[in-house]
Design brief:
Elements (H helix, E strand, L loop, with lengths): L1 H5 L28 H16 L1 H20 L4 H18 L1 H12 L5 H5 L6 H29 L7 H10 L3 H22 L2 H8 L3 H14 L1 H20 L5 H19 L3 H9 L1
Length: 278
């Protein structure tokens, strides 16, 4: 095995990974709010380095938005729930971006094709986590329909009606309930996933451990994580406001920046080993 690796060109070696899941719980570090601009700058640098490979994922996000707009053009209540679902499924859909950032970090070729299958290295746990996010998305989509049915006054709204009502609080009860329920789902998913998917990709961690580590990271760094969530919402909102075109750039930036956030929040494995040995 070692002989083969010594004689194999670096460009042909896949991203190195641990052979077995780590037996130690990841060490979560405290961070400062000032780290967030650094994550965004690092994310932008990775987008510039990645070029077409990175922007490919942004195009996928934008295409998903256009597809939903076309399919649910007359079902605005459901469309609103599914659109918000971008925030719920984003961590899983951005897994390829995490892999691309990891390749840059390791000095490996920045290739699109291997990143498309990055989930295969920890298929069972990534699949379990993706299923959890999908269930939350479906529950939220259903809850969105119920909220419209119970609290939205008037006939069948147009998309412009929905946006105006939400942004101007024209119907304050509806807006409050919609934001409260949607905020709960978004906060829950953010808390369990902010570092979970990068952790499962990088260390082959099981889904439960990764989710718990993510919760601990949010609890230990409440202020910075809240601000990071706000930054994500703002960048996604820019994408929506430009009829999803902006997602071509903003989603890759978010994905790459999330990888750098994970790297700063979770201590390297050598530090983890030292802590575990004490």
């Amino acid at each position: 095995m070692q002989h083969l690796r010594r004689n194999t060109p670096v460009s042909e070696i896949d991203v190195p990974t641990a052979e077995n899941p780590s037996s130690h719980f990841p060490v979560i570090r405290r961070i400062e709010i000032g780290a967030i601009p650094d994550w965004l700058r690092a994310g932008w640098r990775d987008v510039c380095r990645g070029g077409p490979a990175s922007l490919f994922y942004g195009v996928c996000f934008a295409a998903a938005g256009w597809l939903m707009q076309a399919v649910f053009a007359k079902a605005y209540a459901l469309f609103a729930g599914l659109t918000t679902g971008f925030l719920l499924l984003g961590p899983f859909l951005a897994m390829g971006l995490y892999d691309l950032s990891r390749r840059i970090e390791l000095g490996l070729p920045f290739k699109l094709a291997p990143s498309l299958a990055s989930w295969r290295s920890n298929l069972a746990n990534v699949g379990l986590f993706a299923a959890l996010l999908a269930v939350v998305l479906l529950v939220w989509a259903r809850a969105s329909i119920v909220i419209f049915a119970l609290f939205f006054n008037g006939g069948l709204p147009t998309f412009a009606d929905v946006v105006r009502t939400v942004l101007t609080f024209e119907q304050p009860v509806f807006a409050f309930v919609y934001f409260a329920v949607g905020g709960f789902f978004a906060a829950f998913v953010f808390a369990i996933s902010v570092i979970a998917v990068p952790l499962m990709l990088d260390r082959k961690t099981d889904a439960v451990t990764a989710a718990i580590a993510s919760l601990i990271a949010c609890g230990r760094n409440l202020g910075p994580m809240l601000l990071w969530a706000v930054c994500i919402v703002l960048l996604v909102s820019i994408g929506f406001a430009t009829f999803f075109v902006g997602l071509i750039v903003t989603m890759p930036v978010i994905g790459h920046a999330t990888w750098h956030a994970y790297r700063e929040v979770v201590a390297p494995e050598d530090q983890q080993t030292k802590v575990a040995a004490r």
